[in-house]
Amino acid sequence: MASLPIKKLPNSVLRKKARAVGEVTDAERKTLADMAETMYLNNGVGLAAQQVGIDKQLAVVDAGDGLMKMINPCIVKREGTVSQEEGCLSVPELSVKVKRSAKITAEFLNENGEVLRITADGLLARVIQHELDHLNGKLIVDYLGPLRKLFAKKNRP
Ligand code: NI
């Protein structure tokens, strides 16, 4: 395992829609292991592949209940909404209130290529939705209102 440098805004890789993984191989397993190490080293609760410069639908999540490695994740059911402040390792020193589904059911492949389905609420549901946004090239800055967006741009180094 190796920890990887985290890509930050305005790196264009963060805006790419990640490619779906066709077959789960040792390359994906190695990337997921490196991503997990990178997430823990940076005290994150989730990390998507674009954040380490990789154009594949891979994400790791640990919202306190253990590590999950997700390949080609998608949300198949949503219930309710809840707004809460979020941060992102690729957008340092910014927190944005984001409205998300309160409860979700997600499907994904695990690192053995098996289809898994989980239902989550609370922080886990939020983190999964945040990482799915990353895989679609979407970032927390996209949820800012117009005034705060202007302010955030002005103050970006
Ligand atoms: Ni993020």
Structure in words:
The protein is built from three helices and five strands. By secondary structure, the chain is of the alpha+beta class. It has a single domain (12-154), classed as Peptide deformylase (Peptide Deformylase), CATH 3.90.45.10. β2 (58-61) and β3 (68-86) form a beta hairpin. The chain is globular and about 45 Å long. The model has no long low-confidence stretch (mean pLDDT 94). Bound molecules: nickel (II) ion. Residues 88-90, 130, 134 line the site of nickel (II) ion.
Distance between the termini: 32 Å
- Stated plainly, the CATH topology is called Peptide Deformylase
Q: How would you classify the helix and strand content by structural class?
A: alpha+beta
Helix content: 10-25%
Q: What is the approximate shape? A: globular
Main beta sheet strand tally, sense and closure: 5 strands, antiparallel
Biggest sheet, strands in spatial order?
Answer: 1-2-3-4-5
Task: Provide the CATH top-level class.
Answer: Alpha Beta
| Number of H- or I-type helical stretches | 3
Can you give me a brief rundown of this structure?
This protein has helices at residues 26-41, 122-135, 146-154, and strands spanning 46-48, 58-61, 68-86, 96-109, 115-121. Helices cover 25% and strands 30% of the residues.
Give the topology.
Elements (H helix, E strand, L loop, with lengths): L25 H16 L4 E3 L9 E4 L6 E19 L9 E14 L5 E7 H14 L10 H9 L3
Antiparallel strand pairs: 1-2, 2-3, 3-4, 4-5
Bound molecules: nickel (II) ion.
